[in-house]
Amino acid sequence: MDSLNEKSLVHVPVIMAMLFVGGGEKPMSKKKSEPITGAVPVMAMPFDSDGIIDEDSLRHQIDFCIEAGAKGIAFGIGSESGMLTDAERIQVWTLAAKHINGQRPLVVATSHASREGTIALTRLAGECGADCAMVNPQPLQGEKLVRLFDDLSHRVALPLMIQDVGQNASADVLVQATQQAEEVMALKIESPDAPHKIGQVVAELQACKLTAGERQITVLGGSNGNHLPEELSRGSVGTIPFPAIVDVYQTVCDCFRTGDTAGGQEIYLQRIVPLLRAAAAGGGGNASVWIHKAILQRAGILRTAYCRMDTSPVPDWIMEN
């Protein structure tokens, strides 16, 4: 053990989990879960000035989001998940599950470059208390994508969310994967053609009677709500945005749900579009993560806006606007 360096130690949890991804093992007990709808913010991972996870700030952020009306809590790409060690994933997933204590569903990203790694991380997510695993299947396409979710469904009895980011999956493939993998409970569609694809997927799910009844599949948008009104108009029932103005995202979702599309559109244009434009003016991408952290820091929710992603503070004039 003394010969193991620090880097190898942080990967022990996933290495151990991967020993059990072969056939024949019994999956963990199945979780019962409510349909995922509404605004489910992706946490901006809080770090101190030395880049160490700030647990108190994470608790404050979770409390802020729940008090603002969030319908769930998520960890994803915007949470800098790819920048965390395996031990840190366990740390934040377990902390969040304990702090939320069943108030809202906890969704965590468990994508990995390999099939085995995805199975291991998904199993680990369930052991940490997550309620749903969000899996981006890239670069798998077609039948390989379908087999991945079928494999996960049989080996890890944890509800799954298919995250469609790129152009690697048509609406038909997404629906096929959903039909075949009984643990799939939601889809997050944020490909470039998201509004159109959402309409196609929702129509096919309705035809398969998978949007109502005992197995109710929900479809949500992403990309921080860049096309939120269009997505909601075409059958999405929620979105997975950054957390700074999650109350506004939830209000827009509520407006469309109750038929007040004009009101929802107006709120979107007045409250959400300015933030989207500010993020775009700052360079988009990683800069968006910094902007949301800076807003939360100014609100006293996070101690710092430190990012592990390669990004820099945006110009003052963007934040002042």
Describe the structure.
The chain is of the alpha/beta class. It has helices at residues 6-9, 12-18, 55-67, 86-100, 115-128, 142-155, 171-180, 194-207, 228-233, 246-257, 261-281, 286-298, 316-320; strands spanning 38-39, 73-75, 106-109, 132-135, 160-164, 184-189, 218-221, 238-239. The strands form 2 sheets. Strands 2-3-4-5-6-7 form a 6-stranded parallel beta sheet. Helix 7 (171-180) links the parallel strand 5 and strand 6. The chain is globular and about 50 Å long. The termini are far apart. Mean pLDDT is 88; it is low at 1-12 and 15-24.
Keywords for this entry:
321 residues, alpha/beta, 46% helix, 13 helices, two-stranded parallel sheet, six-stranded parallel sheet, disordered N terminus
Strands of the largest sheet, in order across it? 2-3-4-5-6-7
Identify low-pLDDT runs. Answer: 1-12, 15-24
Oligomeric description of these chains: single chain
Overall mean pLDDT stands at 88
Shape category = globular
**Class per helix and strand makeup:** alpha/beta
Helix content: 40-55%
N→C terminal distance? 54 Å
Number of strands: 8
Order of helices and strands: HHEHEHEHEHEHEHEHEHHHH
- Percent in strands: 5-15%
Count of helical segments?
13
Reported for the largest beta sheet, the result is: 6 strands, parallel
Radius of gyration from the CA trace?
A: 19 Å
